[in-house]
Design brief:
This protein is mainly β. It has one domain. The protein is 0% helix and 58% strand. It has no helices and three strands. Strands 1-2-3 form a three-stranded antiparallel β-sheet, with no helix packed on it. Strand 2 and strand 3 form a beta hairpin. The chain is elongated. The termini are far apart.
């Protein structure tokens, strides 16, 4: 069975994970802010 989850670390940082019986995958990403593109 594979389990997925996510957590907001700060207002613009996100932790996403996937875990099964043999493996844990973590993805930590900066989503940016509304002001970043300008």
């Amino acid at each position: 069975m594979t389990v997925y989850g996510s957590a907001i670390i700060q207002s613009d940082r996100l932790l996403v994970w996937s875990q099964n019986e043999t493996e844990l995958i973590l993805l930590f990403t900066d989503t940016g802010t509304h002001a970043d593109p300008f």
